[in-house]
Hints:
The protein has helices spanning 29-33, 35-38, 42-63, 69-83, 89-99, 108-117, 130-140, 162-172, 186-195, 226-229; strands at 15-18, 121-126, 148-151, 179-183, 198-202, 218-220. The chain is α/β, with parallel strands linked by helices. Helix 3 crosses helix 4 (69-83). It contains ten helices and six strands; from the N terminus they run E-H-H-H-H-H-H-E-H-E-H-E-H-E-E-H. A six-stranded parallel β-sheet has the order 3-2-1-4-5-6.
Amino acid sequence: MTEKPTLPTLDDIDACVFDAYGTLFDVAASAARCRDELGDKADALSALWRTKQLEYTWLRSLMGEYVDFWHVTGNGLDYAMATLGLDNPSLRSKLMELYLRLDAYEEVKGVLTRLRECGFKTAILSNGSPTMLTAAIRNARIESVLNDFYSVDSIRIYKPDPRVYQMAVDGLNIPAERICFMSSNAWDAAAAANFGFRVVWVNRFGQQPERLPGEIAHEVKTLSDLPSLLGF
């Protein structure tokens, strides 16, 4: 049997910072829990909702028209439901409520626990509003294994603006080059690397890399590979 190749470790890391949606929390979980009501439109709704949610963050940043991520998430859902011919206010309310209780990926709590036990600081850096992030963190029961979380709401502009990544540097009081940043979003990973973080791209969905600046240190399929990258 061929042994799995050993990846070179990331040295001189003091903190691990995680994107939230798609990295720690499964953004498809809300639609998946409503599959009986959505029928064969469930997957299409989930994909289009996520696409418009992200597009609206970028477009609003360029337009200088910030609203928080809860508002953007609702706008994205409205677009997706209208596109798919879904006129159901009660279903909309249910989908939005479920977005506050997204499932964490199965390895998340165990990995965060190991990181804290080994002395690393841990934090979330996210587009999510403070209310959304607090709800998701509590639902996943990971409060005790996070040092902090940082929301773009405090600076009123979305990723990939460099000021977002600077929040983690300032909040943790750790230089960018000593922070390992994880995201499942290829564009976010590239932007964070371009900013100066040591980046691990958690390519959960088998995406192609973006054609953007920023040298990513490692690509993994799940966060389970992170401890070995950090040498433990």
